[in-house]
Request: fold
Amino acid sequence: MAMDIPITQSKEWQNLQNDLKETSFFEINDDSQYLAILKNTPTGPYLYLPYGPVARELNSMKQALKSVENLAKEHNCIFIRVEPQLENPNKYLPKNAKKSIDLNPKETWLLDLTGTEEDLKAKLPSRLLRYYKNREKQGLTIRTSKDSSDIAHLLRLQHALADKKGINTFSEQYLETELKQPFATLYLVDYQDPDTKNTEVIAAGLVFDDENTRYNLQGAQSEQGRKLHATGILTIQLILDAKEKQLKTFDFWGIAPEGAPDNHPWKGFTTFKKTFAGQEKDYAGTYDLILRPFKYKTYQCLRKINRIIH
Reply:
């Protein structure tokens, strides 16, 4: 059984953590690997493994978790936050595991990019393909950027979306640091007004590529972008470019769980993503492995207070 390594558990992601001045630890062997990031809180430190550890099977997962526990104890951690992608977490998580609020999405939507380009286009919404083909007639052009100053476009659009949907956004410095990584590319959709001839960015997306997968992590559009279907047009471009790079999978990065209420912040995103003929992928979710119960309770109380304030 081959290990499917998410980008958040790669050496490249550790390089990003280094650039963010985070302390991290990377461990790899034939059957498992993990990237653990040391996080500090007022009550003490903990280790966070985004979508990790990664292991071939249950026994190697148990061994990886034990290795992480030893590392955590060396650094006097209160707990370890894990997000393993193996199914049936009750079969390998230790007794001190407690379900936490999911940080990275527990469910996502994947599009298979293998096969011919005709096979791929058959999986794409015909309505969006028409908009894509007519994009220039609508005054839309798509470009890519590695210029950190262009992050301001994404941030502006995200802030407007966050205010409307009540979701959190990353800082400008964080996004700029992400864009500096070799695996990151910023896409921008420009719109030229036919009357004024003024040009503005109405949609943006930040994608990450590893050797097999394109991850569609960050994105937003303006009201004008919504009217012109900019996000849909951009998504078609992201997928076609990933295919051209000979990647195997397009990860839409998160959908709302089955049966989510209409007011779920991802409900609209999920409906849009599922118009593409992909498949759902479910992960274990986020769990805390509690090492110091009293301090963990204190941490949880402070976390709830902070969430209420914000």
